[in-house]
Amino acid sequence: MFQKGKSSGSLMLTMKRWDGHTKPQPRKGNLPDPTEFKCLIRASLGNKKLSTVVSQKDVNKFQMAYANLLKGNMDGLKKKDKKSATGKSKSKATH
């Protein structure tokens, strides 16, 4: 998905806490609290979608692997020119 995202569009990634329930809670009575929350991860690029569930104990491993993946695929970004950015802000502040 990262390689396709470089040439066409942007990759959207969302992460949220998930308790494992797929159906709404009933009005009468409550469902028992889950013993372990999970992390629901969704990625989308255009009309392609991908989702996965990561358990609480594996979230750190997943985030480390995801960070390495991001570092490897962010080679097309342009660096900011610090001199021109600071020069513009100083000239605006003095006038």
From TrEMBL:
Q: Which Gene3D superfamilies match?
A: Signal recognition particle alu RNA binding heterodimer, srp9/1
The annotated regions of Polar residues compositional bias extend over 1-11
Q: Which UniProt keywords apply?
A: Cytoplasm, Ribonucleoprotein, RNA-binding, Signal recognition particle
Q: Where in the cell is it found?
A: Cytoplasm
CC terms in the record's Gene Ontology section: signal recognition particle, endoplasmic reticulum targeting
Q: Where is this region: Disordered?
A: 1-35, 73-95
> Main location per UniProt?
cytoplasm
What biological-process terms (Gene Ontology) are attached?
SRP-dependent cotranslational protein targeting to membrane
* A molecular function (GO) term: 7S RNA binding
Pfam short name (any one): SRP14
Question: What InterPro entries does the record tag this protein with?
Answer: Signal_recog_particle_SRP14, Signal_recog_particle_SRP9/14
Q: How does it assemble?
A: Heterodimer with SRP9; binds RNA as heterodimer. Component of a signal recognition particle (SRP) complex that consists of a 7SL RNA molecule of 300 nucleotides and six protein subunits: SRP72, SRP68, SRP54, SRP19, SRP14 and SRP9.
Q: What does this protein do?
A: Component of the signal recognition particle (SRP) complex, a ribonucleoprotein complex that mediates the cotranslational targeting of secretory and membrane proteins to the endoplasmic reticulum (ER). SRP9 together with SRP14 and the Alu portion of the SRP RNA, constitutes the elongation arrest domain of SRP. The complex of SRP9 and SRP14 is required for SRP RNA binding.
PANTHER family registered for this protein in UniProt:
SIGNAL RECOGNITION PARTICLE 14 KD PROTEIN (PTHR12013)
Which family, according to the similarity comment?
Answer: Belongs to the SRP14 family.
| Protein name, UniProt field | Signal recognition particle 14 kDa protein
- Can you name the source organism? Mytilus galloprovincialis
